[in-house]
Here is the input.
Amino acid sequence: MASCSTADQKHRGGVTLPSLPEPGQVVEVRGSTWAATDVVVQGLSRSPADEATASPPVLQHEVNLQSLDEDRMGEELRVIWELEVGHTVLPDQGLPEEITPEGFDDPRAVGALVDAVRWGAVTSADPKRFQSPFRAGVTLEPYQLEPLRRALAAPRTNQLLADDVGLGKTIEAGLVIEELLLRHRARSVIIVCPPSLALKWRDEMREKFGLDFVIVDSARMAADRRTYGLAANPLRLHPRIIVSMAWLPGVRAQRLLREVLAETDSSGSARRYAFDVLVVDEAHHVAPAAPSAAGGGRGYAVDSQRTRALRRLADKCEHRLFLSATPHNGYTESFSALLEMIDPRRFARGASIDSTALEEVTVRRLKSQITDKDFRQRRVEVLPYEPADDEERAYAELDSLLRSSGRAQGRRSLDIAALLLKKRFLSSPWAFAQTLEGYLDPALPTGDADWFGDDNDAYDDYYTEVMGSGQSDEEEGLIAQPELDTLLATRGSDPLSAATREQLEDLAHWARGYQSRPDSRLEALVSMLDAVCRPDGRTWTNERVVVFTEYADTLDWIVSVLRQQGYGERLAVIRGSTSAEEREDIRARFNAHPTEEDVRVLVATDAAGEGIDLQTYCHRLVNFDVPFNPSRLEQRVGRIDRYGQRETPTIFYLAPVAAGEGLYAGHQEFLGRLADKIATETRDLGAVNPLIDEQITKRFLGRSLRKAPARGRDEQAIDSALAGSGRLNQQLTALARSYERTKADMHLTPQAGRRVVDEALTMTHQPTLEEVGSELTDAGVFAVPDLARSWQDALVGLDTRLQPGQLRPVTFDEKAGRVPGIVHVHLGHPLMRKSTRILRANLFSPHSEVSRVTAVVLPGLEHSCAASMSRLVLVGRGGLRLHEQVFVTGVRLRGHRIAEETLHEVLDRSLDPGSYRLAGPEVRRHLAALWNDGGHLRTRLVEETARRAQSLQAGVHQSLEERCQADLDRVRGIFAAFRANLTDSLAHLRAQEREQQAMLDLWSGEQRQQRARDIRAMEDRLEDLAGEETREEAAVRSRYEDVRPYVSSVALVLAVTEEDAETWGRQS
Here is the structure.
């Protein structure tokens, strides 16, 4: 391929041809700014029609372009230059050839431009120089930077963010996403989360990081088809999307996903990945459920439809972030399946877990380990109550009927239906009534008489539903509980065969008698709520309480009684059927100041147990009943025991005053102790899960359905990784120092932030910000004026869900941004993004609003000088931005170059208000004449800039070479460890098959097939590992090949001594 030099605009045969760019020139194509990287002559003429009118034939040129726009830096485009419309080669916007006395800018405008360019230099060859923390509208803590540090230190980001509930995993993930996007290591992002959290993710990414995400669901599919046609695929259309993990395995979603994944498999496609970044929130939902029992053994976890769907997606995503405070359900092959989705180059489902690899991918910190942030240690308190005699009698009657029925059918212990009925009874009489009535309803289908037995897979699946470990988030709180299906399925075996219908109807009648009236437990709850929220019975305090229950029926009953007690307007409710929009409205009301919103009590099912933050004005939580799953209980507590909690989180559970001899009181007391144990547990809850399963089944059923797995080497590795980091404090100190150092280097101050926004508003003929102040902070607080329609997108998020259209005041001070009702305008805020984009457009636009030249008089300056700020960008293959740096060079007006430290000081003083005085007309005339005198000063400065740029490039190239070698060494180490682990794991599994065949024969067919698939997959991986390693090394090398530099001038500052200013003034 031949390169072609530029040609002036030509006229041939009456045809006007656009001027052709040279490599390195800046062009405007399709409304955006690009750098031409290559110009290649095509072998064909423009068209037969053109040949008829032009002699000789005019050849076409393919021009390769790379974007220079801030939010598309490094993006590539190929065009046929002669076929484009409205394109042009932009004039060189370097140092001006000439300066007029009237052409000097106000230093404030140049200072704003310089800061905008500084803040746009987002990529560094140094992986320790973060940018995303300065583009986040949150109060960052040093520990939240650790995932980001790891992400930049590795060629590929694969992490399990398993921080304690409430430490800010969403923020940590957002920082990594933002940084990967800024560095153009990623362009597309897909977030998979529980359906109830989709809106929260969308809002937080927009408000805290300035990133717009689209929620893809059936409504979005319909809208996109109306807009783009019936073949529109929203997974292709939108670069940043959010999908529900409940929607993902569905037929529609899988069809759309297959289209996207097929593109990566096509031999003609250059795309290796369907999405660059995959984020999975509450990732424990996509791991295989705990294995069902097999002949008294532990069985083998089988992939769910959700697990398989997520694995197919993960295989085609480069960077992967999985978030869960409770990722481990206690069963190793289930956890290894999750790890394989996170990093298939280190882990394989069913293989042994490499402890070193697990430590490298896992980020786990406990609140107790972060000692300097004053996380309050939660307190657990008992709400005592005296069980009524009728409650004891009814529960004893139920137990007697269940046991008599079991004995009559030859069973020595209670069955799953017994566990379900007792669980519902212990939650509330009303939940028990609804369940029993469904069981007695002749209109509902009868179950299978052969349904029981340890050889039936469905029996054990229902067991996990009842225990809670198998309950899916989207089912919780709906009318048809999965547990009712369990009960109906058991009815054919007549688990209550010893009971007459009259006896069962008497029990149901007793339970229905509690409709809209409290039992002893609910009386204790009402007394507690009254004491906290209205101690005198009339005046409401500003205190708030969250009440959790496992069942929608119990929730309805609690709400009915509380409304009778006068809590109507003070009550909010969240259940599984609550829409996402309504959930967010309730969350906003509950987190608003109590003087602004009347709600005092939130009653919720476990549908609110994940991802919803309630700690702002609430520190009390009541577990009205106790889920059997410890992870679910911990998720509840995490709603108030999290970052930002200013009071001691207090967790209440109900327990009888004295257990005595009563069975009902005894079981309630057992559940209370269970709640207390889980709430104060400091170990990984995955290790506790099987033990609690065992205790519950022994206590309620009188037998064990499964054996807890032995604590072997894999379990010890998991325990160690999930115990949290012991080196935390030293790491936090280093990260905090790096954060503050980078902030200072970027000149990121509140004054600079305001200046950038005001100058951008002025350039677009808009009113500037108005300082209004606040009694709550000494920092500057500003009102945003009415702005033109073109600015409206920049105001997104300044209003609130509760007060739409009412813009909150803004501040540029990070600490003032913590004050409720004041918005911090950080670098990622839409208002700042638009402002910096407007200012940076002046670097290339031929219609620039500024000349980018200013002159000032600096008191105390030793020599008058010219200082030039320039931007160096190094872009690698595929448009990957490897390094971007703003640097300053300068020369004395009379003499030689100036030391870099002196130049930085001159630049800062020249552009910071209060440090300079404006150059007068006489000084400006003298400087213009000096600059225009044969171009000598300009030539010296251009040469100095080129010399400095070459020096910087050499240093960066050395850093990139070292980084490339480090990445290669890391890849080789990972594959060597994985190869050894796969070999050892296969040997162990084959030996196990020989030695424990009798136990394996007891497994269900599906379990045996899953194990066989896992072994076959490990064998295939081992066989292909060498080729995979070669491909991975080639991908690493390609990132650092064909590095091209781009240097552009940003601004020119002429700084004059007071002596020179006085002399030149006299000469005029």
Q: What stands out?
A: The first strand starts at residue 10 and ends at 12.
